[in-house]
Design goal:
The chain is mainly alpha-helical. Helix content is 65%, strand content 0%. It is built from nine helices and no strands. Helix 5 packs antiparallel against helix 6. The termini are far apart. Keywords: GTPase activation. Pfam families: RGS (PF00615). One of its GO terms (biological process) is regulation of G protein-coupled receptor signaling pathway. This is RGS10 protein.
Amino acid sequence: IASNEDAVFFFFFFLEINDSEGHPSSSHQTLKGTSKWATSLENLLEDPEGVKRFREFLKKEFSEENVLFWLACEEFKKTQGKKQMQEKAKEIYMTFLSSKASSQVNVEGQSRLNETILETPHPLMFQKLQDQIFNLMKYDSYSRFLKSDIFLNHKKSEEQEENSPEAQTAAKRASRIYNT
């Protein structure tokens, strides 16, 4: 029998190996990744590498369940078919919202949700709760993330990569090609 932590891991495993279109994601990042992440939480959450780094940070703060819930809700909105929706809705409820949830998120209105709502799921059934979690992350965790060693070290490594001789040589070659 797998632990609750294993269940959460497997539930989100596909999110780490695929991008939002279901294509394999690349760990190679554009050089401006951290700059884009710093402009908004939305930009951070659109970037698989940004999500990975933010999760790493939230794990250290013991609040990784917030971003996992947000991601699960995003994935849930794309679910087709009543049976699949029921299954995913129940999984989200049991993982994040139930009083017995393994990775319970702290949201208002959680107590009003009960298992009967899971029988007639719809894509936006978790939207209000997802918005609460997004705002919690945006106005609390996100600003701390931008000051964290995880973010700053990643930014520093990007800058070093950008200033490497190989990157400068490629830029010079491109400049010669386009300026002739």
